[in-house]
Design a protein that fits this description.
With 531 residues, the protein is mainly β. Helices cover 8% and strands 49% of the residues. It has a 39-stranded parallel sheet that branches. The radius of gyration is 27 Å and the shape is elongated. The termini are far apart.
């Protein structure tokens, strides 16, 4: 009887192996995986990947718990996690191979380890209903010096210069570093993943870095650091990217371009996303409900061109919208040429509702002297700020800080509660409503060195301290039409600066305003038309 049982088991194992080979499915249990969460299964997984790579197929993780270190994916290998499969990252850094890509980027020195790594391969995927948990809280940071503070903390996924990449359905948790980085990849499809990343510093949700032809949809992410993160840490441009139908939470920035921008960002659309407070009760970086909803930061050269963001619900972050062209000029490698000031143009943001805003900072769109953000349109937007701006805030002089890290809160409270706009050419605000919940004495909008202004059908709540609703400083060619002030105001528009000129106020509803405009003492030869 025992011999018959043994024979049956042998035949069953043989039939499974034959079926796997015919079906191009390579079960990691067949290659020695123990799946008890204690024994290291790295070698078994590597063997399954090697076997799969010969003719292509699927490496299968059945239900169970697998402890692994680093695994290199190869062309035509599909990783599939069945429901109930848990992959745990080893907590010993010695179980992770060091990998420095051929492509030079800002990350080379300090980002060397990952659970799943791939470079210059094609047709790879990680899919299924299972979970990958990096156990990232086990990696203790022992120094605050840079770049040492990034060392010895592995990613869960890092793919470099790969083609036709798919990540679908899986749950990703607790990376020791960024959760996943796709560096200079082409044709990337990420759909239906769930990310929870709150175990260590630098816990981004996802980093799309110098990739092209990328589709991301139907994802849910909650991270301590930036959530949906577009970077350019090499000379490669992040371009031709479409992102839709995601729910995002971050203690830092929910949608973020930058901070690294060596190559830049071109042809990006982001739509139908909800930004909400994190479910994690504490934060390492940032703020409880997040720093910003939308950040586009461009400070290391490169290009921003052709960004369309629409249908976004923002709940909680301190700053709803932040755009910044600066000149930090950080090299992506030590021997790289010094980057110049980048170009920042053609950005459209529409159909946004932002409430429960977490600070009185205000939104800002700022270039630097002689280098302008160009052709920006904000339309069909409603923002309710908390208020709380003081008389001191209203007259605050904002330093340029052109070589600083691009953070939306770096100036503290701005002199306007709604939008502070500086060093910009050709900006349109249309069907934009901004208000505040509590007392605020600041102007709604301030423009400084702005040329080509189209403000149409704005609804604003006036200052409670008789500051003008709008201020134009050294700005030209402004068409301000069809706007409405929600409550009584002393003054609608104040004009300052020796170069302010060609201002047109047409068909505005100013029945709640005492004076339409007032010229500052330094205004010279300004052509203004009021109808």
């Amino acid at each position: 009887m025992k011999n018959k049982s043994l024979l049956a088991a042998i035949l069953l194992t043989f039939s499974i192996n034959i079926f796997s080979q015919i079906d191009n499915t390579f079960n990691v249990l067949d290659y020695g995986a123990v799946s008890d969460g204690k024994a290291l299964d790295t070698e078994a997984v590597r063997k399954a990947v090697d076997a799969c790579a010969v003719n292509g197929g699927t490496v299968l993780f059945p239900s169970g718990t697998y402890l692994i270190g680093s695994v290199d994916l190869k062309s035509n290998v599909d990783i599939y996690l069945q429901q109930g499969a848990y992959l745990l990252g080893s907590t010993d850094i010695k179980d992770y191979e060091e990998r420095t890509p051929k492509l030079k980027s800002y990350n080379d020195y300090f980002l060397k380890h990952s659970m799943f790594y791939a470079e210059d391969v094609e047709n790879i995927s990680i899919r299924g209903e299972g979970t990958i948990d990096g156990q990232g809280g086990s990696f203790v940071i022992t120094t605050n010096k840079k770049p040492e503070r990034y060392m010895n903390r592995p990613f869960i996924i890092r793919f470099v210069e790969c083609r036709n990449v798919r990540v679908e359905g899986v749950t990703l948790r607790n990376s020791a570093m960024w959760m996943q980085q796709y560096l200079a990849c082409e044709s990337v499809f990420i759909r239906g993943i769930k990310v929870y990343n709150h175990s260590n510093k630098n816990n981004d949700m996802i980093d799309i870095d110098g990739c092209k032809n990328v589709v991301i949809s139907d994802c849910i992410g909650d991270s301590d650091d930036d959530a949906l993160t577009l970077k350019s840490t090499s000379t490669r441009i992040t371009e031709n990217v479409t992102i839709s139908n995601c729910v995002l939470s971050s203690h830092c920035n929910a949608i973020k371009f930058g901070t690294e921008s060596t190559g830049g960002f071109r042809n990006i659309t982001i739509s139908n996303c909800v930004i909400k407070p994190s479910e994690h009760p504490t934060h390492i970086y940032g703020a409880d409900n997040g720093i910003s909803g939308i950040t586009i930061g461009m400070v290391d050269g490169g290009v921003v061109d052709g960004i369309v963001i629409s249908d976004i619900r923002i709940d909680g972050p301190m700053v709803p919208i932040y755009m910044r062209l600066g000149n930090r000029g950080r090299k992506h490698t030590p021997d790289a040429p010094q980057p110049g000031v980048g170009t920042f143009k053609n950005v459209k943001i529409s159909n946004v509702i932002a409430t429960n805003v977490g600070s009185a900072t205000g939104s800002s769109i700022t270039g630097i002297p002689g280098n302008y953000i160009e052709n920006v349109t904000l339309s069909n937007i409603y923002i309710e700020y908390p208020g709380g701006g003081t008389s001191e805030d209203a007259v605050k002089v904002i330093e340029e800080l052109e070589n600083h890290y691009p953070e939306s809160t770096k100036w503290g409270n701005l002199p306007s509660y709604g939008f502070f706009i500086r060093h910009v050419k050709d900006i349109t605000l249309k069907d934009v409503e901004i208000s505040y919940a509590e007392k605020d004495v600041r102007s709604a909008i301030i423009c400084d060195d702005v040329h080509g202004i189209d403000f149409h059908y704005l609804k604003t709540k006036s200052s409670v301290n008789n500051e003008p609703v709008m201020q134009l400083n050294n700005s030209t060619n402004a068409f301000i039409t069809g706007n409405r002030v929600r409550q009584g105001a002393d003054l609608f528009l104040k004009l300052n600066g020796t170069s302010t000129n060609n201002i047109y106020l047409l068909n505005n509803d100013l029945q709640n305003v005492n004076d339409t405009y007032k010229a500052g003492s330094n205004l010279l030869n300004c052509n203004i038309e009021v109808k």
